[in-house]
Every structure is written in C-alpha cells, then in structure tokens.
Design a protein that fits this description.
The complex is a heterodimer of chains A (350) and B (285).
Chain A lengths: L2 H15 L8 H11 L6 H36 L15 E5 L7 E6 L4 H8 L1 H34 L2 H16 L2 H12 L4 H8 L13 H24 L4 H9 L4 H12 L1 H16 L3 H6 L7 H11 L3 H34 L1
Antiparallel strand pairs in A: 1-2
Helix pairs in contact in A: 1-2, 3-15, 4-15, 5-9, 5-12, 6-9, 7-9, 9-12, 10-11, 12-15, 14-15
Chain B lengths: L5 H27 L17 H8 L1 H34 L6 H13 L2 H23 L7 H26 L3 H8 L4 H30 L2 H6 L7 H11 L3 H41 L1
Classes of the chains: A mainly alpha (350), B mainly alpha (285).
Chain lengths: 350, 285
Amino acid sequence: MNRTETGRHVNAIARNAAPHGTHGRLGPLWTFFFRYGPPRWSRYVLDHWTGQRLVIAVPYLWLGIFFLIPFLIVLKISFAEVDPGGRPPYKPVFDWLQLNEGVLKDGALQIRLAIHSYVYLITEPLYWSSMLFSLKVAAVSTVLALGVGYPMAYAIARSNPTARNLLLMLVILPFWTSFLLRVYAWVGLLKADGVINNVLLAIGVIHEPLTMMKTDFALYIGIVYSYLPFMILPLYSNLEKHDNTLIEAASDLGAGPIRAFMRVTLPLSMPGIVAGSLLVFIPAVGEYVIPELLGRSDQLMIATQLYHEFFSDRDWPNASAVAIAMLLLLVVPIMIFQHFQNRELQAARK
Amino acid sequence: MSGGGKTDGKFSKTMLALGLVFLYLPIITLIVFSFNDSRSVTVWASATTKWYGKLLEDEQILTAAWLSVRIGALSATFAAMLGTLAGLVLARFGPFRGRALLQGLTTAPLVMPEIITGLSMLLLFVSIEQLLHWLFGWQFDRGMLTIIIAHITFTMAYVTVIVQSRLAGFDDSLEEAALDLGARPAKVFFRITVPLILPAILSGWLLAFTLSWDDVVVTTFVTGPGSSTLPLVIFSRVRLGVSPVVNALATIMVVIVACGVILSAIFMRRQEQRRKREEQMAASG
C-alpha cells in the first residue's frame, strides 16, 4: 500500500466523518485530528496507517533522542564557558536573566556564546599537530591494510567454494574475539623483552633488542591488525561477484595477467576498495585504545587529546570543540561511505 | 574466479597465508603464554594452569564479567528489537518522508568514532540529570542503565544494516500474498518476515553482544561510580603492563568464541542444505 493512496483514503474518511456544522474554525482542527490522531473507527487505517507510523516512530525517536540530540548538546557546550569548580564544569549557555537585584523576575533569555574554545583550538599548535598526526596515521594504516587485504580478499574470492567458506570464517573469527585483548596481545609480542625480540636474539639476527613498543610502527601494526577484517570483507564481497569471462576476454585479446588485472579487475573492484578503505580510515582517525597501548606518548592522536581535555583537565567546552572539529574533519568521508552503503543496498534489492 | 595468470595467483595465495599468520600469531602467543609458569608473559618457563586458578579467585574480574554479561545481554536484546524495526522500515516501507534522515541516523554510528559517541552520550545524560533535578529534584547516578542505553544506541546500527540487507535480498511477494489473504500486517511480520530474517536477527544480536562486551571508550564516558565493566578492568590492568591472568581470561574468551563461530557455521550450513533440498523437492514435485 503506498503512502499517497493511504493519505487519500484517510482524507476521504476525515471528510465523511467530520460532523456537520464543524466547518469554520473547527474544520481544520478536525482535519488535523483525523489526519494525525488515532483513527479507531477503521480497521483498515489502524492496520495500514497508525501501525506504520508507530513502527517508523520507534527507531526514529530512539535515534533522535540518543544520537541526534547529543550532538546538538555537544555543539551547545562547545560554546560554553569553563567553570572549573562547577558540577558540571561549565557555565550555562542559555540563561534566564534576572532583573532587579534580589527580586526574582522572569526576564529575557540570555544566550552567552563563548568562542574561546574554538579560538584556542585554532591558535594552539598542539591541536593542529595531533589532527595532522591522526590523519597521517589513518591514511598510512589504510594504505597498509589495503596492501595486505586486497591480495587476501582476491585469493579468497578465487578459491573453491568449500575453502572459501573456511577462509572467510578464519578472517571473521578474530573480529568476534575481544578487540582489546587482540591489541594487548601485541604488547607481549613487541615489548623489549617480548616474543619477537627474544626469537630474533635467539637466532642471532640481532644482538640488542629492537625498540618496537610505543613507536609509530607498533601503532600501525595495531591499527592494521584490528581493522583488517573490515578491509577484507567489502573487498571480498565485491571481488566474488566479478564475471570471470571479462578476464578471459582480456587475455584472449592479448593482455598479460598484470595488465588484465590493472585494466579489468582493479577498476571493477573500486566500490569495494572505497568501502573497505573508509571502514578503516574513519575509525582510525578517532582511535583511542590502540595509541594508548601501543603508540608514542610524545605525539598524541586527536582522540587522546580529547580524552585528556575531558578527563584530566575537566575542560568540557574545549573537549566538545575538539569533538566538533573531528566531526567536521570526518563528515566528508562519512558522507561518501553512506553514499556507497546506500548504493550497495539498492543493488541488493534489484 | 579462476582467470588471471599463474604468477598473480601465487602472489595472492602467499599473501593470504601470510595475512592469516599475521591475524592468528598474536592470538596463539596469547594462549600459549597463559600456560606459562612465570610472571613474565614472554619468556617460557614451564607449563602450568595456575593462572586459571588465580583468575577464578579474582573477585574484581568476576564481578566485572558478570556485569558485562548482563549489560551485553540486555543491550543486545533491545538493540536487536530496535534494529529489526529500523531495518524493516528502511527496507519495506517505501519512500516515506524522513527516510533519508533515518537511513543516515542508522548508518552514522557504524563509522562514528567511539570517542565522539561517548562524549555526546555523556553530555546528554548530564543534561537529563540536570533537567530531572530542576524539574523534580531527582538525583540519579550514572551506571548500568546509562551504559545499556549507550550500548543499545551504537549497536542497533549494526543490527539495522544486517536486517536491512537481508530483507533487501528477499522480494516481498510472500508478505504481499499473506496480506492479500487477509492477514494483518502485525501477523505478517511475526509469521512471515521474522522467520525469514531470523538468522539475520540472531547474528545481529550476537554482534551487538560482542560489541557491548568489548567496548572501552563509550563505557568509560557513560559509566558511573561502581560500574566497572570487564573491558574497563582489563584496560586499566594492561595499561600497567602484561599480566598472565589477563592471558588466561583471553584464552577462555577465544575458546568460547571459536566454539560459537564453528557451531553457528555448521548450523547455517545445515539450514542452507535443507533449504536447497526443499527447493529441489518443490521444483521436482
């Protein structure tokens, strides 16, 4: 049942059901009531109309209250002034002005917008450097994950169906185990007296332990390791759909395997590459746990900066401003991701 | 796919093997050193199971694990219900006003950095607290309830995507047939749609549980005094350094997950085979 049809039906009911003599001022009100109120008299409307609205309303309300409104609050608080002793530690942005000393009177709504959180954000080089560092880490990790993930997805897509299911399961399985514990596992491997150093020392490749913990190297490993399944799965689901005859045609026409790959497979797998890369890049920019356990302590990523701002300095307005800046940074990649996500779903429908 | 040359086939197969080693090596060392009779989790002494004994005596971890199980189960259940509704609405209700916004709201949490979600949820809860205090003079502490609400919100997106893409894979002829035969939409939903997408709902539930069970960042923000979930306890411990008790815990979790994944794979395979058989019978009969 489509919407306009239902709407017409309801309007017809509303017209017929409106008691005589209610034209004039009550007329629009009746229409309004019949359009939005509970139309109990018609089972048809009850089934197709209210129910449908109600079903739409439930997830809408939940996400509106707990996902959309919080961002407006973050935006509001990013314009607040810090109040170090206060609970919560910021001064209200919207305030009722109290006129006349001592006499409480409802006055005008006062709005105080303090932009110094943003000024601080722009003038303090610390934020610029952690922003740029986050972008760099995310970009390098994405390229590394693509370099490792693409051949893996390709090999899985080319294997026979039985092996394929097993391999896919092997790729997905670590994803189901605790992310935190898998990052922790790398601490044991990379430490100065860790497994890798011990093995290398024992076989005599090195004579002094390598410093790997708390370096960018460890950070890249941690991020690539944690997000690799997110890269492989979209790539696999793209590569699996490829029509093999295209490659055969290319090689019949004299293209070598590398050329056929570059000219046929790679362009066709672009949607998978974009989806996988964004699934790695976006969360990597805002990563907190991995740099905290494996990364350097002299160069912070932006999420760590936000965390310190919030928990150590208790500067909530500034932390909110950092969050807004991060959102602005990520809004374009997130939009691209949603665009591709929607296209995939549209394609699945056909 | 089987085209292409021999060389790139070899290259990608080698990369696959190396990639799998990369994925599993850390997990295997984690397991091996949980049986190591030394405080150092990196130098092998001799085999022991004493860390498992220590784990069972560790009140803090056990309390936190029980809290995490309850939070995970409750939030996954609500997330599965809300996510199924959202997936149904997006896949089946056609183009209604505000559909694009709902689609955006359901996919945004998938890629939203956790630190932003956590901060914004906390600020929401603080505002609600202020409002309730101002209106009714109520006081309440953040804790299990706020954690559950936050977890429902960021995990329902995953359920939505799974359910929506599952529904998009079916055409709605079965549902329409039931409607034509006079079934009410609610009945159609529970008798036709839900059984069809049950595997999707179940895997959505499991995913939501796993994400809730594993979450550090959002929980750090929205938790209150006395509500330390398991990931918070683990995180505060591994920040101080490696600990064999954590290795023992990790081993138990890996074993449970591996069993779960293998069992569900077998189950799904059976389902698939049965469906195929039935299809063949229907075609021949």
